[in-house]
């Protein structure tokens, strides 16, 4: 009988321990869900700041310029267009006027312009001119990063050095990306890129993740994840237009790849 008690008692303790762990997990998930719901409600309360605002969404690359290429010929230009379209839907539902630099697989250069470099120069100049002419309240240029080390991951924002508004926009978007995507090692950085230098409106570049990271490569193709990251961008833009995101200057930064 003593041996039987010796066997049964640990099993009871194991079951009790598992039950406690399960209850703890359920409670934790409940707390996270409540916190997420409260945050979404807070963003919704700020959505009035979008009414009548002009937001330029700039899906990078297009046409003969594919951007970075992942395994199985997954192209940056296609991923950023899809995410940009989802972001446009969120913003329009919030009352913003959204202008996309491209709605399909093309660039903005004249058809007769040959050579990728010449086309790229004209393409970038026209994206900038579009935002400056409107003039827009904000411009968000969407890209996907790549790096030689596949361990690198995380969405990253870049702002123009010396522009308090660009920095505020980058900070608000980065906060939301970090909150939802668990990229807590990422902070908004300065970037020295054509679009950031030449636009006269608050502009940021957002690298949505690394196509060279196996995990993010899969996620960036997932429609649910694309919607999630689009909502992060929407939330950050909303917070910026509501006056949030102002704080000390950003750090200088260097990215993993291409010129914007």
Count every beta strand, where a strand is a DSSP E run of 2 or more residues.
Answer: 7
Radius of gyration: 22 Å
Instruction: Decide which structural class fits the backbone.
Output: alpha/beta
Euclidean distance between termini CA atoms? 77 Å
Q: What fraction strand? A: 5-15%
Describe the fold and architecture:
With 260 residues, the chain is α/β, with parallel strands linked by helices. The chain is built from seven helices and seven strands, in the order αβαβαββαβαβααβ. The longest helix is centred in the first third of the chain and has 45 residues, at 2-46. The radius of gyration is 22 Å and the shape is globular. The chain starts with a helix and ends in an 8-residue tail after the last strand. The relative contact order is 0.16. Mean pLDDT is 86; it is low at 4-8, 24-35 and 254-259.
Summarize the structure.
The chain has seven helices and seven strands. It has helices spanning 2-46, 76-93, 116-133, 164-181, 194-198, 214-219, 223-241; strands at 54-59, 97-100, 138-145, 156-159, 189-190, 203-210, 251-252. It starts with a helix and ends in an 8-residue tail after the last strand.
């Amino acid at each position: 009988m003593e041996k039987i008690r010796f066997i049964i008692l640990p099993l009871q303790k194991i079951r009790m321990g598992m039950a406690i762990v399960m209850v703890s997990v359920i409670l934790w998930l409940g707390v996270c869900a409540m916190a997420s719901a409260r945050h979404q409600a807070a963003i919704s309360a700020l959505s009035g700041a979008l009414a009548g605002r002009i937001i330029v969404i700039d899906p990078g690359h297009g046409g003969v310029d594919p951007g970075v290429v992942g395994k199985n010929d997954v192209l940056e230009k296609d991923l950023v267009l899809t995410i940009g379209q989802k972001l446009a839907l969120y913003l329009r539902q919030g009352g913003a006027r959204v202008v996309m630099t491209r709605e399909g697989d093309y660039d903005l250069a004249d058809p007769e312009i040959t050579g990728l470099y010449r086309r790229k120069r004209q393409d970038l100049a026209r994206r900038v001119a579009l935002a400056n002419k409107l003039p827009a309240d904000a411009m968000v240029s969407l890209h996907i990063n790549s790096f030689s080390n596949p361990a690198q991951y995380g969405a990253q924002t870049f702002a123009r050095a010396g522009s308090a508004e660009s920095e505020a926009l980058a900070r608000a978007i980065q906060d939301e990306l970090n909150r939802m995507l668990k990229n807590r090692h990422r902070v908004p950085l300065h970037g020295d890129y054509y679009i950031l230098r030449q636009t006269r409106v608050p502009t940021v570049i957002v690298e949505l993740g690394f196509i060279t990271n196996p995990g993010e490569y899969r996620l960036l193709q997932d429609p649910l994840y694309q919607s999630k990251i689009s909502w992060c961008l929407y939330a950050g833009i909303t917070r910026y237009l509501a006056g949030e995101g102002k704080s000390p200057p950003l750090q200088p930064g260097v990215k993993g790849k291409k010129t914007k």
